[in-house]
């Protein structure tokens, strides 16, 4: 310990030549270290927990199989909670677990209040909730409200005739178009026509996505009530909140189909429902990649969080370049005009887009630097399962090409990789042996070790979950720098966009006094008058505590 302290002090005194380790050595400058574990517990308790949590997006089908049928399931996921908590995960978002004919990997729900028998039973979900809560972890479910499966009993009834009790629960038309469904004249999202003929009614139904996913008619109050009742069912069961699938697309109009006033009114009803329960939160899958602001309402009446996909889905482009502004501008634009308290959800991937490994063109420092921004910028990080291992894509499609990023978790080396004792429902991705948790956990240079250290570095520090974020533009255009302040502390994050040479930049208006304390990564920083001079290695990143 004393050696580490001496080495770090030496490092900070001979600023130029030193790069230091990622470990959290004690402060050389008199910055007191509070009990971070106790602080983390406090921050993760109560209604603001979602600001401070690290959330993990889990595809139940691919996390852990418990019965040898090759399909991941709820008991399997429950058995892996210790590993996820050891990584630094505080909450799970489960992709849809409802019964489904699987035309869209579960995003075609056939029963809003049931559990897919491939994944287990309601009792298995209760067991997962109990086990997670006992660990202080939270569980959010995917709520897919825009459409159901065409196998849902509601649609089976609706399609049977023009005068049944649910005849108006979906969006029907005599022709494959409707003037009051503006978006319905375009192609559906997944390639087919947006209208499909039902022979029994001799009418067409509208589907924004696959033909097996008819859009519900939210102009019908019975649909509003039925879907809110479904949400209430899970809240009563103890789930901690929802990730709301394409929630902006609920209601269509002649003028538009994305977050129109009727959709916003529904979201307010959903929020009011959540607010009847303590400590619940919901996050919007934004369909607007420029800004998440429409999802926040007045900051209290719509979503607790909304995904920033402008960064989350497109970071591969700026990180292939050398301009820090390409990142900071995206992060600033998305938040412009947001109400106080709006909380973005930050990702570098999801079940819908290529693995970070692909987006980074296989350059490890790119996904690591992007993940560093994700964990240190303003917002709540959502890790897509396997990102912590640098998981690589698969080559097999079962449903569609998005299965490339939905392959099973390789927990161990060897056949089945600890995921299953049987044959996995889809083959593992490339390099499963060397990207297995077993292989990476023992290697301090691995992606897993990187993620574990990074999550530990931000843990119990209020500034990251709820603090302000100020971008600092120094004289090197390649250095992305921002200050986070909150909870009486301030931090500086620096990332070099340059992959060839070290970058030195002079930052002004940096808070705190004394020399910054390196918490994570490798860089040097020294005060010169009112400025802070920072040198970041090529492909480098670092997190400093300022005060
Ligand atoms: Ca199974
Ligand atoms: Ca709709």
Tally of individual helices = 17
CATH superfamily grouping of the largest domain: Glycosidases
Low-confidence stretches: 1-28
* Order of the strands making up the biggest sheet: 1-2-3-7-8-9-10-11
Largest sheet features: 8 strands, parallel, barrel
Number of domains: 3
| Second-tier CATH architecture of the largest domain | Alpha-Beta Barrel
CATH topology type of the largest domain: TIM Barrel
- How far is the N terminus from the C terminus? 22 Å
CATH class descriptor of the largest domain: Alpha Beta
Summarize model confidence as the mean pLDDT.
93
- Structural class comes to alpha/beta
Basic shape: globular
Helical residue percent? 25-40%
Bound molecules: calcium ion
What's the short story on this structure?
The protein has helices spanning 2-13, 36-43, 49-52, 60-63, 74-79, 81-87, 122-134, 153-158, 221-237, 261-274, 309-312, 325-335, 356-359, 364-376, 437-441, 447-458, 462-466; strands at residues 55-58, 91-94, 138-143, 172-173, 195-198, 203-206, 241-244, 281-284, 305-307, 343-346, 380-384, 468-472, 479-486, 489-496, 503-507, 517-521, 524-528, 531-536, 541-545.
């Amino acid at each position: 310990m004393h050696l580490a302290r001496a080495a770090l002090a030496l490092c900070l005194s001979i600023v130029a030549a030193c790069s230091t380790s990622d470990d959290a050595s004690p402060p050389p400058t008199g910055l007191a270290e509070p009990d971070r574990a106790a602080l983390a517990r406090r921050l993760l308790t109560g209604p603001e927990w979602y600001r401070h949590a690290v959330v993990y997006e889990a595809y139940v089908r691919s996390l852990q199989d418990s019965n040898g049928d090759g399909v991941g399931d709820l008991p399997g996921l429950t058995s892996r909670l210790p590993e996820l908590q050891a990584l630094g995960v505080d909450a799970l978002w489960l992709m849809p677990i409802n019964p489904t004919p699987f035309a869209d990997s579960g995003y075609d729900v056939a029963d809003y209040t049931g559990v897919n028998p491939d994944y287990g039973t309601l009792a298995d979900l209760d067991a997962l909730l109990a086990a997670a809560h006992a660990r202080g972890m939270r569980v959010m479910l995917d709520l897919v409200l825009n459409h159901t499966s065409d196998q849902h009993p509601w649609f089976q009834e609706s399609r049977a005739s023009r005068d049944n009790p649910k005849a108006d629960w979906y969006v029907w038309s005599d022709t494959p178009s409707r003037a009051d469904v503006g978006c319905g004249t375009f192609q559906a999202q997944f390639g087919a026509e947006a209208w499909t003929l039902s022979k029994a009614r001799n009418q067409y139904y509208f589907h924004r996505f696959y033909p097996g996913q008819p859009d519900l008619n939210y102009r019908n109050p019975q649909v509003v009530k039925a879907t809110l009742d479904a949400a209430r069912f899970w809240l009563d069961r103890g789930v901690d909140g929802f990730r709301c699938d394409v929630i902006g697309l609920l209601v269509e109009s002649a003028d538009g189909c994305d977050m129109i006033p009727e959709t916003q009114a529904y979201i307010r009803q959903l929020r009011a429902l959540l607010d009847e329960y303590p400590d619940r939160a919901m996050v919007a899958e934004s369909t607007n990649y420029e800004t998440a602001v429409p999802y926040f309402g007045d900051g209290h009446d719509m979503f607790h969080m909304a995904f920033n996909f402008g960064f989350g889905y497109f970071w591969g482009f700026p990180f292939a370049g050398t301009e820090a502004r390409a990142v900071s501008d995206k992060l600033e634009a998305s938040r412009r005009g947001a109400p106080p308290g709006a909380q973005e959800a930050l990702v570098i991937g999801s079940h819908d887009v290529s693995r970070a490994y692909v987006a980074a063109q296989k350059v490890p420092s790119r996904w690591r630097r992007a993940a560093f921004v994700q964990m240190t910028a303003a917002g709540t990080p959502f890790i897509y399962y396997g990102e912590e291992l640098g998981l690589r894509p698969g080559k097999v499609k079962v449903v569609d090409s998005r299965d490339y990023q939905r392959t099973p978790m390789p927990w161990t080396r060897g056949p089945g990789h600890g995921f299953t004792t049987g044959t996995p429902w889809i083959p593992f991705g490339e390099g499963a042996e060397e990207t297995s948790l077993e292989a990476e956990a023992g290697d301090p240079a691995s992606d897993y070790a990187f993620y574990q250290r990074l999550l530990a570095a931000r843990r119990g520090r209020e500034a990251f979950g709820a603090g302000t974020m100020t971008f600092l533009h120094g004289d090197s255009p390649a250095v992305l720098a921002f200050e986070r302040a909150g909870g009486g502390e301030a931090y500086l994050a620096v990332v070099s966009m340059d992959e060839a040479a070290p970058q030195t930049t002079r930052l002004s208006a940096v808070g705190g006094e004394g020399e910054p304390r390196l918490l994570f990564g490798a860089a040097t920083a020294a005060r010169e008058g009112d400025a802070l001079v920072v040198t970041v290695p090529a492909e480098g990143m670092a997190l400093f505590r300022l005060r």
